[in-house]
Each structure stands twice: as C-alpha cells, then as structure tokens.
Amino acid sequence: MIVTVWRHGEAECGANDRLRQLTSMGRDDVSAGCVQFRTACNARGITPPQRILHSPWVRTIQTAKIIAAVFGPCTVAVESALRPDSDVPAVDAAICADGVQEHIVLVSHQPLVSRVVDHYLGGLESMPFLTPGGLITMSLDRVSRGGAKLLFWALPPTYEEGI
User: Are strands 103-108 and 51-54 parallel, antiparallel or unpaired?
Assistant: First the structure.
C-alpha cells in the first residue's frame, strides 16, 4: 500500500483553531504541490490516490478538496484519528479499517504528521519537518513501526522532490 502523509496548507490565524481556513498562499501551495505530486507518482508508476482521509478541521477539509479535485475519482472522508491531538495507534486503526490497498492520502496537522511519519519509517531522523503543505510518500508493507519505505517527500513552495 502507498501512504502519503500531507500536512494541510498554510492557514489563517484565528481564535478557534478548528475553524481556521487556508490562506490564498496555502491554497496556491497545495495546488502547486498536487502538480508536482502527480509528476512524482507518474515517474515512479504509483497509482493515483483512491482515498483521501482528513481531520474534521476546516483547513484539512479544504486541503483534501484541492487534492481530490486534481486526482479525480477518489473517495474523500473525515477521519477523527487525524486530529492534531490524536495518536499513532488511532491512525493505524483507521488505515487498517479503510481497506484501501493501493494509495491513500492522510491530510492532517503537526505534531501528528511527524509522529506518523516517524512511526512508519522507524525513526528515520533525516526526514525534514513537514511545513504547511508538505508531503511524504511511503510504501507501507505493514501497518507498524518501521513498516514503511520512503519513496519521496516534497515541501512548498517549490515542491522539488527529496529522497
């Protein structure tokens, strides 16, 4: 299974963290990232995402919609395990329950995105901090610590691939 962990785009400031919306730069960054993401997937023979799961917070909903608009027919769903205060075992359970066996995108927040990546890659310390709009794509052989292999990562604004 391919798992892409994508941090939401840059969001506005606001008193209610759950309602913060993407800024215009956040929307632009995610849109640009989708173009580079498609290119990176195509170059590696990776299937487009079949499912996008996102936290129930506004900025992840908006990010997921941008990604889905680029990749066409895929399912987009809210997953409470992707809230920023969630934990890795909840994400593991969500992935296992999902049933997607090809490519799933998880749209979430810091610090959860870093914890999830660290968990699946087994503590790979050379990974960059996922800034807003950043993504990491992994091949997940098993849903467990160290069960993944890094395929590529990309950060805004250029989204040049890193390996």
Answer: parallel
Q: Which two tokens stand for residue 68?
A: 């889905």
Q: What does the pLDDT look like over 116-135, one tens digit per residue? A: 999 999 876 667 789 999 99
Distance CA 54, CA 76 (A): 8
Q: What is the pTM of this model?
A: 0.95
Please check whether the domain covering 2-162 is classified as CATH 3.30.420.40. no
The residue to which tokens 């990749």 are assigned: 71
Rounded Cα gap, residues 77 and 34, in angstroms: 18
- Cα separation values, 107 from 4, 9, 43, 63, 148, Å: 8, 10, 23, 7, 18
Question: Residue 92 CA to chain centroid, in angstroms?
Answer: 14
Give the whole-angstrom CA distance, residue 34 versus residue 81: 23
